[in-house]
Amino acid sequence: MELCFSPMACSLASRIVVYEIGAEARIRFVEVDPRSKHTLEGSDYRAIYPLGLVPLLRLPDGSLLSENAAILQYLAGLDPESRLAPRDPLERARLQQWLCFIGTELHKALFIPLFDTNAPEGTRERTLARQESRLDFLEAHLTAKDYLLDRFTAADAYLFAVLNWAAPTRLDLSRWPAIQAYHAQLQKRPEVARATREEFALYQAEVARHRAA
């Protein structure tokens, strides 16, 4: 299988899950430059996936699986014993609930506007005001909790990847100490730390390439 990713993008969550289940030998990582939309191997990524988004997983039969929530659940299912995706129907629905919340309310509605340097004046302020309730909701849930569910799951991998963007978008999380503590604690997980360390090095190399171009 092949996993297309961009360093420190939301696809970091997929790398974390791959490492958590020990599936490195089964998956080849293919880096995609987010600016050129070409892989570092020289292929036009849009010819593979017209939307040009990551992550993208090429399955053993050659078919493609897109969308973070779908890929994370598929990868977690490669090792059911890891329990990164619950087997119980209700708990699986809870996992899906959090994947949807992260993808819709945080990834798309909060961080994408904050990353947009060409957004109209006032966008940042309006976005932060509108999304405070989402962060308050997450803060209340994580108070006295280590994970979104009763243990580390694929949803935590996704939330960790998204919360990494607080620094580059200048989002001050000090108002939400439980979220801060949650993110800091996840950084200590060996496979989370490994994935982050490797992708940050690749991100630095990406920035250097863009500056030299």
Query: What's the count of strands?
Result: 4
The major β-sheet equals: 4 strands, mixed
Mean pLDDT: 97
Q: Topology as H/E string?
A: EHEHEEHHHHHH
The computed structural class is alpha+beta
Q: What is the count of helical runs?
A: 8
Strand order of the largest sheet: 2-1-3-4
**CA-based gyration radius:** 17 Å
User: Which architecture of the largest domain per CATH?
Assistant: Up-down Bundle
Shape annotation: globular
Query: What's the domain count?
Result: 2
Task: Describe the protein in words.
- The protein is α+β, with helices and mostly antiparallel strands and 213 residues long.
- It folds into 2 domains: 2-82, Glutaredoxin, CATH 3.40.30.10; 89-190, Glutathione S-transferase Yfyf (Class Pi), Chain A, domain 2 (Up-down Bundle).
- The chain is built from 8 helices and 4 strands.
- It has helices at 12-20, 45-48, 68-77, 89-115, 123-142, 154-163, 177-186, 190-212; strands spanning 2-5, 28-31, 56-58, 64-66.
- Strands 2-1-3-4 form a 4-stranded mixed β-sheet.
- Strand 1 (2-5), helix 1 (12-20) and strand 2 form a beta-alpha-beta unit.
- It starts with a strand and ends with a helix.
- The mean pLDDT is 97.
What key phrases describe this protein's structure?
213 residues; alpha+beta; Glutaredoxin; Glutathione S-transferase Yfyf (Class Pi), Chain A, domain 2; 4-stranded mixed β-sheet
Task: Provide a compact summary of the structure.
The protein has eight helices and four strands, in the order βαβαββαααααα. With 213 residues, it is α+β, with helices and mostly antiparallel strands. The chain has a four-stranded mixed beta sheet.
